Recover the amino acids of this structure.
């Protein structure tokens, strides 16, 4: 197959700048630009205190803290550290961090980690500016701040999947709600100002996290190029993501210290974030968020993977030519005909199994008896109904239930 991604033309050790709402320093060694860039920010924002949001240990094990902490010390900046963020961050974590930061309000926030610390930091960045506002104001959809109304955020991204370092979305679960929900918050106020994507920080990422974040990026691309709000821009980026993930995710899983594979997966995740920031998402993410709301231990990418083939089957039937192009790296025999939908879904499912995702919904602890509560959660979680409405095929509660049921077991064995 012709190499349409031209990956051999780029030096992974050359740090470049990707500009949009967020200024991203990208490339191996990009972390070393932190001190100089933050010193410039310090002068403009008169920074004396920063709030750092991260997980328990990965910010140290990846090497980022070895650069960030000495730089902040040299700049005489006080650090308030919240290091309790876990997978699928919750309202409780946001409230804990807010309590810490509101005592001595930082002028800037820094997140170190993947999607969970960054999403937590995004929400905190706004709530710090509005002491009387709570997470409930976000959940109720009654609070949409302006871009200027937030504490600015600098993201040091240590996974390759979410794209949250470059988009206007954040996810924080409310496990106390009935049913539990994992809503998406959307506002330009939570775009990070700066980010670092350094593939060197990914070399110690565990195999499972590499796998699930790579699948997350692939799902972002598949949905962004197939919504009714898609554009040539979201489509072009998504096609490139498909080629990059197909080529480099298996390599990164076998060779975790392969910097070239990490570089291109980091890039794929970033442009997938830009793709769905423009084209938005539809069914796979809407249904996954309910799975994770009932069991926050389910990795986001795994939840997506168990659903993706069934969603692809319906998406392919609606947009066969687009989906055939998207699946070109996975299979070159697809002709872009609606009747190939089942075949296309099985092709993707078999590829997911080949890289290590053999689970389906039943393996995550759910049964068909759980489907009604999952469907209820989908329709009670903002803004999932809106996302479902922009899918390329009609969706109602019966269709949602049908996808959950179909995804209980492998398509290829039906």
């Amino acid at each position: 197959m012709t190499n349409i991604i031209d990956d051999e033309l780029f030096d992974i050790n050359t740090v470049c700048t990707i500009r949009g709402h967020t200024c991203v320093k990208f490339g191996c060694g990009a972390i070393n630009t932190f001190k100089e860039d933050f010193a410039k920010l310090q002068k403009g924002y008169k920074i004396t205190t920063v709030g750092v949001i991260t997980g328990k240990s990965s910010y140290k094990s990846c090497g980022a803290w070895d650069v960030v902490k000495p730089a902040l010390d040299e700049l005489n900046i006080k650090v308030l550290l919240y290091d309790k963020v876990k997978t699928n961050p919750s309202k409780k974590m946001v409230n804990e961090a807010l309590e810490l930061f509101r005592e001595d309000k930082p002028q800037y926030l820094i997140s170190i980690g993947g999607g969970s610390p960054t999403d937590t930091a995004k929400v905190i960045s706004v709530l710090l500016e509005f002491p009387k506002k709570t997470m409930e104001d976000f959940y109720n959809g009654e609070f949409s701040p302006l871009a200027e109304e937030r504490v600015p955020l600098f993201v040091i991204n240590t996974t390759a999947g979410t794209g949250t370092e470059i988009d206007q979305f954040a996810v924080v679960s409310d496990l106390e709600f009935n049913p539990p929900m994992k809503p998406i918050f959307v506002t330009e106020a939570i775009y990070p100002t700066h980010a670092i994507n350094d593939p060197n920080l990914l070399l110690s990422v565990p195999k499972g996290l590499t796998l699930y974040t790579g699948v997350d990026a692939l799902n972002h691309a598949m949905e962004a190029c197939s919504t009714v709000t898609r554009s040539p821009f979201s489509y072009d980026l998504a096609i490139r993501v498909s080629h990059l993930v197909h080529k480099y995710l298996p390599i990164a899983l076998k060779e975790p210290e392969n910097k070239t594979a990490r570089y291109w997966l980091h890039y794929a995740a970033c442009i997938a974030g830009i793709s769905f920031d423009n084209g938005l998402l539809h069914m796979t993410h809407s249904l996954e968020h309910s799975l994770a709301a009932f069991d926050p231990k389910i990795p986001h990418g795994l939840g997506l993977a168990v659903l993706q083939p069934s969603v692809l089957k319906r998406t392919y039937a609606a947009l066969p030519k687009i989906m055939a192009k998207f699946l070109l790296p996975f299979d070159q025999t697809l002709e872009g005909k609606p009747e190939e939908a089942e075949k296309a879904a099985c092709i993707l499912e078999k590829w997911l199994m080949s890289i290590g995702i053999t689970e389906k919904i039943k393996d995550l602890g759910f049964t068909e008896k759980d489907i009604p509560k999952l469907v209820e959660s989908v329709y009670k979680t903002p803004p999932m109904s809106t996302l479902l409405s922009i899918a390329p095929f009609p969706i109602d509660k019966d269709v949602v239930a049908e996808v959950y049921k179909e995804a209980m077991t492998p398509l290829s064995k039906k």
